[in-house]
């Protein structure tokens, strides 16, 4: 399984944009979008206006452009994530296979670790449900809740907590799926259209796929003299991407529920996982197969009686307060 840190991926994308001659303007906050006679435009907080044949709104979870299409708000999962990286030469990392992604799961919490930069770093993420969030309090996900959530976990997880960055944590939100992404010449892309929970690690790749699919349809609708039928390209884009991303959003929610089960439900989950063929990934072919450009290329989702497993890529389970799952994929 290939893994990449956020900053490394950003660097790759930045260099690709620079090579393509893209002008990047920093510290420019878009406050409004509107369709115009020649396409669409954006107004910045500075008052400056930019106009083009097409505006792609990749403005994230709190997208301003999304409000043109739907009146909704981010949905809190009541879970929070802490992160921390450890250099490979640290004793904490010794003996670990940094080519693997390993998840320790338990009731209302999990702990994941994997290598970055070809084994130079170990990345760790601790996730738990915040009792204060469930109670509706404003101040939630704090370090004291982190310590309490993992108080009864196995030694390996306990030893990883001191390496977490405690000055910053990430409250986990997504949004309900929407099937309309285009408003005139304004189109949503990435988290503005489909911000997921992180459980099947599809947030960044969905945004990249969005861009690739739209780019392919722009190329198909470009005339010999260079003009683009933007409306046709956007129609094709909106016809295929929302359904795939809807599946990812709903599967991510289900996967999070699966990881954090307790009691009888946890034992039932473990029995199902043990019964699986470790190397059978047919049920995620829809996720890791070729990216569909048209509706007819989008594969059906795999369905079995064990529907709770949909979207999960599980290599194994071992018993204990922290159940450890090693996940892999063909991404």
Structure in words:
This protein is an alpha+beta fold and 331 residues long. It has a domain at 75-173: D-Amino Acid Oxidase, Chain A, domain 2 (2-Layer Sandwich). It has helices at residues 6-19, 131-134, 143-149, 155-160, 203-220, 230-259, 263-275, 285-288, and strands at 30-36, 39-44, 49-52, 55-57, 75-87, 101-106, 109-116, 121-129, 170-174, 182-183, 186-188, 323-327. The chain has a 6-stranded antiparallel β-sheet. Strands 1-2-3 form a 3-stranded antiparallel β-sheet, with no helix packed on it. Strands 4-11-10 form a 3-stranded mixed β-sheet. Helix 5 runs antiparallel to helix 6. The protein is globular and about 65 Å long. The model is unreliable at 305-331 (pLDDT under 50).
Keywords:
331 residues, D-Amino Acid Oxidase, Chain A, domain 2, six-stranded antiparallel beta sheet, disordered C terminus, alpha+beta
Task: Tell me the layout of helices and strands.
Elements lengths: L5 H14 L10 E7 L2 E6 L4 E4 L2 E3 L17 E13 L13 E6 L2 E8 L4 E9 L1 H4 L8 H7 L5 H6 L9 E5 L7 E2 L2 E3 L14 H18 L9 H30 L3 H13 L9 H4 L34 E5 L4
Parallel strand pairs: 4-11
Antiparallel strand pairs: 1-2, 2-3, 5-8, 5-9, 6-7, 6-12, 7-8, 10-11
Helix pairs in contact: 5-6
